[in-house]
Amino acid sequence: MKYGEEHHLKVLFTREQIQARVAQLGEAITGDYRGAGELILVAVLRGSVYFAVDLSRRLEIPFVLDFMGISSYGGVSASHGIVRITKDLDSNIAHKNVLLLEDIVDTGLTLNYLRRNLQTRNPASLRICTFLDMPARRIVNIPVDYCGFTLPDLYVVGYGLDHHERYRNLEVVAALK
Ligand code: IMP
Q: Given 106, 133, 153, 162, which residue is catalytic?
Protein backbone atom coordinates (compact mmCIF):
# COMPACT_ATOMS: atom_id res chain seq x y z
CA MET A 1 0.00 0.00 0.00
CA LYS A 2 1.14 3.51 -0.73
CA TYR A 3 1.35 5.83 2.24
CA GLY A 4 0.07 9.34 1.92
CA GLU A 5 -1.43 9.35 -1.53
CA GLU A 6 -3.58 12.30 -0.53
CA HIS A 7 -2.23 13.29 2.85
CA HIS A 8 1.26 13.86 3.99
CA LEU A 9 2.06 11.18 6.55
CA LYS A 10 5.02 11.19 8.87
CA VAL A 11 5.84 7.81 10.39
CA LEU A 12 6.14 8.02 14.18
CA PHE A 13 6.37 4.33 15.11
CA THR A 14 7.48 1.56 12.78
CA ARG A 15 5.97 -1.90 12.61
CA GLU A 16 8.97 -3.27 14.54
CA GLN A 17 8.72 -0.65 17.28
CA ILE A 18 4.99 -1.31 17.66
CA GLN A 19 5.37 -5.07 17.80
CA ALA A 20 8.19 -4.81 20.36
CA ARG A 21 6.13 -2.52 22.59
CA VAL A 22 3.02 -4.70 22.31
CA ALA A 23 5.13 -7.71 23.33
CA GLN A 24 6.29 -5.81 26.44
CA LEU A 25 2.72 -4.90 27.33
CA GLY A 26 1.69 -8.54 26.87
CA GLU A 27 4.43 -9.64 29.23
CA ALA A 28 3.45 -7.08 31.88
CA ILE A 29 -0.24 -7.97 31.69
CA THR A 30 0.53 -11.70 31.80
CA GLY A 31 2.57 -11.14 34.97
CA ASP A 32 -0.07 -8.98 36.63
CA TYR A 33 -3.03 -11.24 35.92
CA ARG A 34 -1.46 -14.69 36.31
CA GLY A 35 -3.48 -16.62 38.89
CA ALA A 36 -5.82 -13.64 39.42
CA GLY A 37 -9.05 -15.27 38.21
CA GLU A 38 -11.04 -14.83 35.04
CA LEU A 39 -9.92 -12.11 32.66
CA ILE A 40 -12.14 -10.44 30.10
CA LEU A 41 -10.49 -8.31 27.44
CA VAL A 42 -12.92 -5.70 26.21
CA ALA A 43 -11.89 -4.24 22.87
CA VAL A 44 -13.63 -1.01 21.93
CA LEU A 45 -14.80 -1.11 18.32
CA ARG A 46 -13.52 -0.26 15.92
CA GLY A 47 -10.12 1.33 16.38
CA SER A 48 -8.71 -1.02 19.00
CA VAL A 49 -9.23 -4.24 17.02
CA TYR A 50 -5.72 -4.32 15.53
CA PHE A 51 -4.15 -3.67 18.94
CA ALA A 52 -6.42 -6.21 20.65
CA VAL A 53 -5.50 -8.96 18.20
CA ASP A 54 -1.75 -8.40 18.52
CA LEU A 55 -1.80 -7.90 22.29
CA SER A 56 -3.97 -10.95 22.94
CA ARG A 57 -1.50 -13.12 21.03
CA ARG A 58 1.18 -12.04 23.52
CA LEU A 59 -0.77 -13.13 26.61
CA GLU A 60 0.20 -16.38 28.24
CA ILE A 61 -2.85 -16.60 30.48
CA PRO A 62 -6.45 -17.61 29.69
CA PHE A 63 -8.87 -14.82 28.75
CA VAL A 64 -12.16 -14.15 27.02
CA LEU A 65 -12.09 -11.59 24.21
CA ASP A 66 -15.24 -9.50 23.98
CA PHE A 67 -16.22 -6.36 22.11
CA MET A 68 -18.09 -3.20 22.82
CA GLY A 69 -19.29 -0.99 19.97
CA ILE A 70 -19.75 2.71 20.53
CA SER A 71 -20.48 5.70 18.43
CA SER A 72 -20.71 9.33 19.34
CA TYR A 73 -23.98 11.09 18.67
CA GLY A 74 -24.13 12.78 15.30
CA GLY A 75 -21.04 10.95 14.07
CA VAL A 76 -18.85 13.86 15.10
CA SER A 77 -15.94 13.23 17.45
CA ALA A 78 -17.07 12.55 20.99
CA SER A 79 -16.54 16.14 21.99
CA HIS A 80 -19.40 16.12 24.46
CA GLY A 81 -18.75 12.65 25.78
CA ILE A 82 -22.24 11.51 24.86
CA VAL A 83 -21.72 8.02 23.61
CA ARG A 84 -24.18 5.50 22.23
CA ILE A 85 -23.61 1.77 22.68
CA THR A 86 -24.04 0.12 19.29
CA LYS A 87 -22.95 -3.32 20.47
CA ASP A 88 -22.93 -4.44 24.06
CA LEU A 89 -20.75 -7.12 25.62
CA ASP A 90 -21.78 -10.75 25.21
CA SER A 91 -20.17 -11.63 28.57
CA ASN A 92 -21.40 -11.02 32.07
CA ILE A 93 -18.46 -9.25 33.69
CA ALA A 94 -19.69 -9.38 37.30
CA HIS A 95 -16.91 -10.55 39.66
CA LYS A 96 -14.43 -10.87 36.79
CA ASN A 97 -11.31 -8.91 35.95
CA VAL A 98 -11.93 -6.58 33.04
CA LEU A 99 -9.20 -5.02 30.95
CA LEU A 100 -10.52 -2.33 28.63
CA LEU A 101 -8.48 -2.04 25.42
CA GLU A 102 -8.48 1.30 23.60
CA ASP A 103 -6.68 2.58 20.54
CA ILE A 104 -6.10 6.06 21.94
CA VAL A 105 -7.05 8.13 24.96
CA ASP A 106 -7.43 11.66 23.71
CA THR A 107 -9.92 13.87 25.63
CA GLY A 108 -10.77 10.84 27.78
CA LEU A 109 -14.50 11.47 27.36
CA THR A 110 -15.25 8.19 25.61
CA LEU A 111 -13.39 6.09 28.15
CA ASN A 112 -14.86 8.02 31.03
CA TYR A 113 -18.33 7.07 29.82
CA LEU A 114 -17.37 3.44 29.16
CA ARG A 115 -15.63 3.06 32.47
CA ARG A 116 -18.61 4.34 34.40
CA ASN A 117 -20.94 2.13 32.41
CA LEU A 118 -18.85 -0.99 33.07
CA GLN A 119 -18.35 -0.16 36.76
CA THR A 120 -22.10 -0.45 37.32
CA ARG A 121 -21.85 -4.14 36.31
CA ASN A 122 -19.68 -4.95 39.36
CA PRO A 123 -16.49 -6.31 37.83
CA ALA A 124 -13.89 -7.65 40.30
CA SER A 125 -11.47 -5.15 38.77
CA LEU A 126 -11.46 -2.74 35.85
CA ARG A 127 -8.27 -1.49 34.28
CA ILE A 128 -7.47 0.44 31.15
CA CYS A 129 -4.88 -0.47 28.54
CA THR A 130 -4.45 1.98 25.70
CA PHE A 131 -2.17 1.70 22.71
CA LEU A 132 -1.66 5.49 22.53
CA ASP A 133 -2.07 8.22 25.10
CA MET A 134 -2.29 11.97 24.44
CA PRO A 135 -2.31 13.46 27.94
CA ALA A 136 -2.05 17.04 26.61
CA ARG A 137 -5.57 16.77 25.16
CA ARG A 138 -7.26 15.37 28.26
CA ILE A 139 -10.55 16.93 29.40
CA VAL A 140 -11.44 14.34 32.04
CA ASN A 141 -8.93 12.56 34.19
CA ILE A 142 -8.72 8.85 33.34
CA PRO A 143 -6.49 6.36 35.13
CA VAL A 144 -4.43 4.67 32.41
CA ASP A 145 -2.97 1.42 33.75
CA TYR A 146 -1.08 0.28 30.65
CA CYS A 147 0.01 2.46 27.75
CA GLY A 148 1.93 1.64 24.57
CA PHE A 149 3.18 5.08 23.61
CA THR A 150 2.61 8.64 24.82
CA LEU A 151 2.24 11.33 22.18
CA PRO A 152 1.94 15.13 22.04
CA ASP A 153 -1.14 16.78 20.51
CA LEU A 154 -1.23 15.35 16.97
CA TYR A 155 -3.72 13.65 14.69
CA VAL A 156 -2.43 10.15 14.11
CA VAL A 157 -3.49 7.29 11.87
CA GLY A 158 -2.60 3.65 11.38
CA TYR A 159 -2.66 0.50 13.51
CA GLY A 160 -6.45 0.81 13.80
CA LEU A 161 -6.69 4.60 13.88
CA ASP A 162 -8.46 6.15 10.93
CA HIS A 163 -9.14 9.42 9.18
CA HIS A 164 -12.62 9.10 7.68
CA GLU A 165 -12.14 5.30 7.71
CA ARG A 166 -8.83 5.46 5.86
CA TYR A 167 -5.41 4.29 7.04
CA ARG A 168 -6.65 1.85 9.70
CA ASN A 169 -4.70 -0.96 8.08
CA LEU A 170 -1.30 0.75 8.10
CA GLU A 171 1.17 -1.31 10.12
CA VAL A 172 2.82 1.89 11.30
CA VAL A 173 1.54 4.86 13.27
CA ALA A 174 1.85 8.13 11.37
CA ALA A 175 1.01 11.75 12.00
CA LEU A 176 -1.38 13.25 9.50
CA LYS A 177 -0.39 16.71 8.33
P1 IMP B 1 -11.52 10.61 23.30
O2 IMP B 1 -11.32 12.03 22.84
O3 IMP B 1 -10.49 10.20 24.31
O4 IMP B 1 -12.92 10.39 23.77
O5 IMP B 1 -11.28 9.71 22.01
C6 IMP B 1 -12.34 9.19 21.28
C7 IMP B 1 -11.94 8.45 20.05
O8 IMP B 1 -11.57 9.40 19.06
C9 IMP B 1 -10.76 7.49 20.13
O10 IMP B 1 -11.09 6.21 20.63
C11 IMP B 1 -10.36 7.41 18.67
O12 IMP B 1 -11.16 6.46 17.99
C13 IMP B 1 -10.68 8.81 18.17
N14 IMP B 1 -9.44 9.62 18.11
C15 IMP B 1 -8.98 10.48 19.02
N16 IMP B 1 -7.80 11.01 18.63
C17 IMP B 1 -7.51 10.45 17.43
C18 IMP B 1 -6.39 10.57 16.50
O19 IMP B 1 -5.39 11.30 16.70
N20 IMP B 1 -6.48 9.82 15.37
C21 IMP B 1 -7.54 9.00 15.10
N22 IMP B 1 -8.56 8.84 15.94
C23 IMP B 1 -8.56 9.56 17.09
A: 106
Boundaries of every domain in the chain: 18-151
Predicted confidence (pLDDT) per residue in 56-110, tens digit: 999 999 999 999 999 876 555 545 667 889 999 999 999 999 999 999 999 999 9
Q: 31-45, pLDDT tens digit by residue? A: 999 999 999 999 999
- By C-alpha distance, which of 116, 128, 138, 106 is closest to 44? 128
Indicate the CATH number of 18-151 among 3.30.360.10, 3.30.930.10, 3.40.50.2300, 3.40.50.2020: 3.40.50.2020
**Which pLDDT does position 81 carry in this prediction?**
65
**Ligand 1 binding site (Cβ under 6 Å of any ligand atom):** 47, 77-78, 102-111, 155-157, 161
pTM of the predicted model as reported, rounded to 2 decimal places: 0.93
Question: Closest residue (by CA) to atom 22 of ligand 1?
Answer: 161
Contact predicate 143/128, CB 8 Å: yes
